Amino acid sequence: MAKKQEHQEVAETIARIVLKAGREKPILQGHPWIYSGAIDKMENYTLPGQLADVFSSDGQFLARGYVNEYSQITCRILTREKEAIDREFFRERFQKAFHLRQQWISAYTNAYRLINSEGDFLPGLIVDVYRNGLVCQFLTAGMERQKEVILQLLIEMFEPEFIFERSDTGPRQEEGLQQVKRLLYGKLPKELIITEYGVHFKVDILQGQKTGFYLDQRENRLLVREFSQGKKVLDCFSYSGGFSLFAAKGGAASITAVDSSLRAIELLQENFELNEFPRLPKRFERADVFDFLREDTEEYDLIVLDPPSFARSQKAVKKAARGYKDINMLAFRRLRPGGFLFTFSCSHFIDPKLFQQIVFAAAADVGRPVQILRRLGHGIDHPISIYHPEGEYLKGLLIHVVE
Asked: pTM of whole model > 0.70?
């Protein structure tokens, strides 16, 4: 009962934010963030994550969200109405998000993103489905304060076997929160295996990347499968083998997978054993991908570049651009004429236009004639609010090296 009373109190305590004159336009246009520099004054604020109403300088109500003075993004918008932020509010948002996934996702996988933060109009909250369990990220003080309500609803609506929290990311630190990794509900299975388009994967939600698996690359893995028949494939930054296994499923002639993490290589090997490709020639290399591409003398028909983020801040963009250019130049040198490059960036601060310019410069410096066959991005379980272009973090290109 005490917890319910606490959250009821949170819902009733509303701070007041008044914007500087002329700074209301982004909010009127639907953007969900208010930076500290746009705020003239803040009244009745007592603690991070508190709910707040936002007003223009002339007193017009604009939105309701939650506030954190320790974050550069001081307020994140939840609604444009003066409505209660309570169980029913979250229930409605969860139902809409689940309905979208049930229409398009559940028929071919049992692992997908259920709640995608701003993309599902719940900034700061990530919920991923792994078979019969859920993995959550509470990335902001506002969602941290609503955690108990959210957990109760997830249990009630989805009846999961477990709920595990992977709030061990950088954004928590920016919000003044400690990183957290713990079981919140139920019991973890001894072994968690998911299935995607008939391919099986062991998932390490305790130590794995992101929430355990790169769910956002699902449709791009499927496309790699379509292009892999008879191809000599190189999978760089392979992690647990998502692209490698789909290339094998598509009839690749051989697979070479490279990752610097021992645990990633172990997961990759386990996943190949799980899917039984015994006769497929394959090579697993634990190595720095830059060093491998410089030293390797083989040529490949298809290369996948899916590196970790090279730019974790705006200040890092210049250095990151150099890294992306170098890695793509090295890949172009290893591709046979007529080969294909699937190249990606998951850096928030590298926008699609800049990424294409980087790949263009890499191809030009190497002197390879190339064509863009397709622009790539998230799967549909990672929706992007049209008002929040910052949510489009994953961008990629399918490149053909002309013979």
From this structure: yes
Helical H segments across 111-181, by residue range: 141-145, 147-158, 170-174
User: What structural domains and CATH numbers belong to the chain?
Assistant: 11-79 (2.30.130.10), 87-186 (3.30.750.80), 209-401 (3.40.50.150)
Closest C-alpha to 183, from 175, 192, 174: 192
Instruction: For residue 334, give the amino acid letter.
Output: R
Strand, helix or coil for residue 125: strand
Catalytic residue ranges: 346
The residue whose two tokens read 């994953």 is 394
Interhelix angle 218-227/242-249, nearest 10 degrees? 40
User: Contact, 390 vs 350, CB < 8 A?
Assistant: no
What HEC string does 361-381 produce?
HHHHHHCCCEEEEEEECCCCC
How does DSSP classify residue 139? -
Per-residue pLDDT of the chain (403 residues), as tens digits, is: 333 334 444 446 899 999 999 999 999 999 999 999 999 999 999 999 999 999 999 999 999 999 999 999 999 999 999 999 999 999 999 999 999 999 888 788 999 999 999 999 999 999 999 999 999 999 999 999 999 999 999 999 999 999 999 999 888 988 999 999 999 999 999 999 999 999 999 999 998 889 999 999 999 999 999 999 999 999 999 999 999 999 999 999 999 999 999 999 999 999 999 998 878 999 999 999 999 999 999 999 999 999 988 877 777 888 889 999 999 999 999 999 999 999 999 988 889 999 999 999 999 999 999 999 999 999 999 999 999 999 999 999 999 999 8
Show the DSSP H helices in 235-390 as ranges: 242-249, 262-275, 289-295, 317-334, 352-366
User: 85 φ, ψ to 5°?
Assistant: -95, 85
* Strand order, beta sheet including 125-130: 111-116, 125-130, 133-138, 162-167, 180-186
Distance, CA of 69 to chain centre: 26
